[in-house]
Specification:
Low-confidence stretches of chain A: 498-511, 567-578
Largest sheet of chain B: none
Radius of gyration of chain A: 36 Å
Distance between the termini of chain A: 73 Å
Mean pLDDT of chain B: 88
Strand content of chain B: under 5%
Strand content of chain A: 5-15%
Number of strands of chain B: 0
Shape of chain B: globular
Largest interface: A-B, 64 and 39 residues
Distance between the termini of chain B: 35 Å
Number of strands of chain A: 17
Mean pLDDT of chain A: 88
Order of helices and strands of chain B: HHHHHHHHHHHHHHHH
Strand order of the largest sheet of chain A: 1-14-13-17-15-16
Low-confidence stretches of chain B: none
Number of helices of chain B: 16
Helix content of chain A: 40-55%
Structural class of chain A: alpha/beta
Oligomer: heterodimer
Chain lengths: 578, 339
Amino acid sequence: MLMNLFKFKGGVKPPTNKTQSLGLPIAQAPLPTRLVVPLHQSIGGLPRPVVQAGDKVLKGQLIGQADGWISAAVHAPTSGTVLEVALHVQPHPSGLDALCVVIEPDGKDEWIERTRLDYQAMTPEQVREHLQQSGVVGLGGAVFPTHGKLTASKTVPMEEMVINGAECEPFITCDDLLMRERAEEVVRGIGIFRDLLQPKKVLIGIEDNKPEAAAAMRAAVSALNENFVVVPVPTLYPAGGAKQLIRVLTGKEVPASKRSTDLGVQCFNVATAYTAWRAIAHGEPVVSRLVTVSGNVHTPRNYEVLIGTPMDELLKLATPHPDTDGIVMGGPMMGFLVPNSHVPVVKATNCLIAHSPRIFPPAPPEMPCIRCGSCAQACPHELQPFEMYWFSRAKNFGKTQEYHIFDCIECGCCSFVCPSRIPLVQYFRFAKSEIWAREREKNAADGAKERFEFKQLRDEREKTEKAEKLAKAAAAQTAKKAAEATAAAAAAEATPTETASAPVVVEATPTVPVDAEKDAKKAAILAAMERAKAQREAAQIKNTENLNAQQQRDIAEIEARREVIQPAAPAPVDENKA
Amino acid sequence: MSFTTSPYLLKDTSVSQVMIQVCIALIPGIAAYVWLIGPAILAQLVIATTAALLAEAAMLRIQRKPLAIFLSDGSAIVTAWLIALTFPPLAPWWLVFTGTVFAIVIAKHLYGGLGQNPFNPAMVAFAVCIVSFPALMSQWPSVGLQMPLVEQINIILGLAPRVDALSGATPLDALKTALKLGDGSVDVAHLLANQDIFGNFAGRGWEWVAGGYLLGGLYLWQRKLITWHVPVAFLGSMTLIAGALWLYSPTQFANPLFHLLSGGAMIGAFFIATDPVSGCTTARGKLIFGAGAGLLAYIIRVFGGYPDGVAFAVLLMNLCVPVIDLLTQPPIFGMKDKA
């Protein structure tokens, strides 16, 4: 079928390095000695662990309960015993720890009871919930919970559904082999998505360097009597980026600020469709995925790998060469060196590349930018990377945002073409994380300021109330004293007449009570100060007793911050005036 | 920043490779220059290159920057070659030397070195020298240099007297005369057809040197080291204004082709105005930059006091680059409707 394809601007053509891992069919990776299954394997809420150390689990048994709508469940990849639920290093550039369920396989690989569902008999809500419970997430790398993408916009009709089989990153071939070997199930999975979203067209985009995969998919589409269109797209990195593929197939450009459904289009990866089908039709949650093992290894190949398999155990299967000095997870354009070789394979792991200086020579020294504009020509989002670079370097983050740094998808095209060998993407990642950190700090500071201002208001109110109280008390005292004085005078004179008493009082007040009034005031002030002091002490004792060192440090910090903030904070007097 | 983050694959490219390509692209022009004007230009290229590398090394040493990396980036050599090619071929050696040192030290390194200079260093050198030594900078050999190489080099080195033959009226000068008289007593078309200094289209010999630059420029474009915007806008705007005035008064003004193939128009359009460091970076910005430079070059060379206007035109446009870039930011992916 002839189709009018669109182009996206920019893009690069790195050597694809795909043939190495295409020689052999998909193999099942053997059971590892231990599985470390991170609970947080999707965008969104951190699933709550529902097992504890010592529990026996079956393959496919729920071990992490989805937390909130944008979150996906996590399951035991094989049967065995839970050794611990503890923090372990994640396959993430940060090298941070996160909660993992560690399972010792019993070797039986025994499934839970699997129920085959007929999704056509289910309501859309039930299908979405089942997908969430089965841990189906975007396997293209973003691991966004798939059920969250299966609701069409209420206002915009769903025009096209784009299925991403482009696989544009060099080295990676797992989607290619999936389509070659399991096209039918992929197409059935796409059928589920189609029925939920009801798009007018379903377009399956496959880069034209994978004719076998495209042929297999075409055959499966016609065998299943579907009307999906398999479209070969020009091989140009990053044609497999969701936004780029949508552009190529539909001509629509989804900006960073919008959801693709707002433009009547949605995009799924082929592997996601496959797992969705397995989850519904076979009752199998996502406990494994296809992983390409390539790079500096003797036999590059694709493996079906249990989630949680330590990467070094997987890499061993392909026999890495002795000069291997690291593992890159993902492709060479957007992947990252994992913090250590024991980190587990997760749902986002589409490829492991054995790193060596031979296949990835260290970049030559960074030179100054010569503004040649190659980066801008290569940028698929039509940004001006060199401008963002200047501002990132100068830590002028506001400017980087003016140049749309958050539209950057970190595809690496700019770094790839830069003749000055500037690691541009690294600067942008740095700038983004700084902006996020500052945002958080600002929010925290705003909260602190609000609390501080509220406290000042409250202090002020208490002060005025106290003053009023004191004034009342003083007045009462004066009146009492005056009354006493009057009584005394009356008694002394002993000539009380109904009419004379009043003038006496008037006379007496200016003379006698002057000292008395002063004394009363003094006493009242002293008493008030005493009370305030007592109150203060009481309050302090209440707050600061039983503090640990950390809390004390925090308090010291807060006090220090208050010192700084105080002069800057608006004076409450002004507020009263206003 | 280290190499430990993606992308791990990098294209085989470098600043040196870019600069080497630019030098390669200059070769057709240089070949025509040697063939038609005289081999003295080769001596000038050597003098300028030596001066540039010495000045570059000294500046790097003072700033404690790595010598090997920055000397081999080739940027100083490109500057040197552009200076040699835009100066008169028999200019005394010290003029070329001083101009080149000025370009590298003042115009490049005092502004921060590679990638930081707001003005094109070669054009700064040209402007400074033509203002300081107008006579020497205007001595263009009228016809092909019919003298042996040794004699040419002697003139450059100051070992032989600077003969009168060096300073004939250049093609552009002849035009200026016509414009100044403006009474019909000088007919440009007639002049071009009959004077020996003129060839088929422009100055004899020089027109083919310009052709060489055009060829090299197309090579740069084909290798994607430059985009079409600046050369097309530069030559386009020059053609437009030259064409308009020529149609208005063919006796006073030369035809557009004459202007495109005269003086620094061709090397300016493809090699000087396309300098990425001091030029615009956006597509629309490049069009404005190129068009402005072409227009100013024409105005200065025809109505101004200097033999050619490309250097001043480019420098004036360099001044406008930050504003032009700021105002011509292209809409990004997905935001085109709003823009």
